[in-house]
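Re: the 143-residue chain
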Amino acid sequence: MFIGEYTYSIDEKKRLAIPPKFRQLLGSQAVLTRGLDNCLFLYPAKEWKALAEKLSKLPLAQADARGFARLMLTGAMEAPLDSLGRILVPDYLKEYAALGKKIVVAGVFNRVEIWGEEEWTKYKQKAEKEAGNIAERLKELGV
C-alpha cells in the first residue's frame, strides 16, 4: 500500500526519483499516465492492467466514457525504474501536470500521485479546509 508524501526534484534529464518505500511496491515496471486534479498517476503494472481492463469495458457509445478512457490510456507510458529508482517524465506529462522543479510524490493506496509542489499545496489546503464537509458526503457512500 502506498501512503505518505515526499518532496523531490526533477533533474535536467527529466528524471524523477521515487521514494525508496514505493520502489519495491512498484517493481521494475510501472505505468505513468495523466491523473485527475492536475497530477500524474503512477501505477504498478498489475494495478494498471486491472484499471485498463475496466476502462476497455466502458460503453463506447457514451461520450464521457470514451473521453475518460482516452485521457487515461493515450497519456500512459511504461515507466521502468532505473538502478537509482528514477523514472523518466516526458514533456507532455510534465506540461499536463504543470510540473516545475519541486515535485510532491504522494502515496494513495494503490497508486502514486505526482504533483507540482504549488498545485499540491493549493489542492491540499482546499481539501483540508473542506474535510468536514467531504466526510459528511462520504458518509452517504458508507465510508
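The CA atoms of residues 31 and 78 lie 5 Å apart.
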